[in-house]
């Protein structure tokens, strides 16, 4: 609206209108900083980090032979700095946080505090965790389940010998899967499965197992090579002996496509469609096959750091990156007349 129109509507001199406009703009910037930043991003057409995968630690208690996020460091941010980074991401537009690793449940106190912060302070629409399942306990889910929308558990085989050969198994994987599935139902958490298809399991039939577990989503990934992480004898893991062809991945997918929860992702889909943040709060880009890191958002902010990597948000949308990621809240039951009378709340 022009100052002339404002002047005619308000009856103020033009200079007053300019002062008033300046004051209102200042109030907007101070009072609604996240809204102003979001508007600026829309004008600049920079992507909004709506869904973020945070690898807060690289430490893991398993040794999966194909892992592409290996324990090259033992670094972990302080709780306060991690929360500061998450707040910056929220202000930049984050609605969903997926917590991965490493193994998140190796740090139950850190993880629990982060879950509570994300829901009670940031009010994120969705918070999920990816875990190998070995350290998940019912006591943890009982205490923190109210802050968890989705719990994704890795399961690469129903054959324990295969799980052990991959480096994930201890002979108890499948039993633990069913325990976690039951706990998720008990504490109103959406249960999800993740499977990496590799040389050892691409011929396996997991149809009956997955149907019995009944996850709300089953993500099936083609094993992925990332330079500097798992591509040679010089790296902590060497994926080359685990790799499969696109055709072999398709064979596995065709065998399981009738499962309603089935969602396949080959290497092309995985490459740049995930927005990844590492233990230093740096964005990671593995789209070129080599891991590239931005500066830390703690130092330069989200927008600048995000501009330093390639995130294909169109591919993110095309692979179904936005879905029903919030758990269903239980419907409150109306108390009976007997219960009201017992509590003294029934006014006769």
Automatic annotation (TrEMBL):
Query: Which Gene Ontology biological process is one annotated for this entry?
Result: defense response to virus
Q: Which Gene3D superfamilies match?
A: Aldolase class I (3.20.20.70)
Keyword RNA-binding (UniProt): no
InterPro entries found in the cross-reference section: Aldolase_TIM, Elp3/MiaA/NifB-like_rSAM, RSAD2/Viperin_antiviral, rSAM, rSAM_sf
Q: Which Pfam families would you find in this protein's record?
A: Radical_SAM
Give me the segments passing through the membrane.
16-36
Keyword terms? 4Fe-4S, Antiviral defense, Iron, Iron-sulfur, Membrane, Metal-binding, Mitochondrion, S-adenosyl-L-methionine, Transmembrane, Transmembrane helix
Q: Which residues form the signal peptide?
A: none
Q: Where is the Radical SAM core domain?
A: 46-264
GO molecular function terms noted in the UniProt entry = 4 iron, 4 sulfur cluster binding; catalytic activity; metal ion binding
Cofactor names from the entry are: [4Fe-4S] cluster
CDD domains from the UniProt entry: Radical_SAM (cd01335)
Q: Which PROSITE patterns does UniProt cross-reference here? A: RADICAL_SAM
The protein's matches in NCBIfam families, at most eight in alphabetical order, are given as: viperin_w_prok
Q: What is this protein called?
A: Radical SAM core domain-containing protein
